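Example is below:
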Amino acid sequence: MTSIFNLSGQPNSDSKSPSSMEDYYRLQQLLLQYSLLLIPIVFPLVWFFYSIDVAFNYLLGASVGVLYLRILFKDVEKIGVSKGRVGSKGLMIFSGLIIVACRWQHLHVVPVFLGFLTYKVAIMIYMIQSLMPKSRI
């Protein structure tokens, strides 16, 4: 991955160069793939250990988490190009999810919230993977 900073710590003038954007899009796709791969692994486990009701609460939270991640990617992509607050739309989606989970009797806040955090597990998997030494053949 190319650095967006030069040796003096100042941003490069070509921080939006094609190679850095290609790296960003690759990271974006990888995090979405990890998130989408985690959902069908965790959903049956939650169903097995708890109930189908709790599993669907997890699924709702995880789906909104993936939507939040997509919105966050689009907001980050606009940094430096347009004015506006980054993450405000995502925060509204998260707040709406938690409010609905609190108000609707069939939803449980904890499984919905933990499902929402599935994208964070995908980020942790990526970070651990990037810290592992690459084997050379």
Notes: Confidence is low (pLDDT under 50) at residues 1-11.
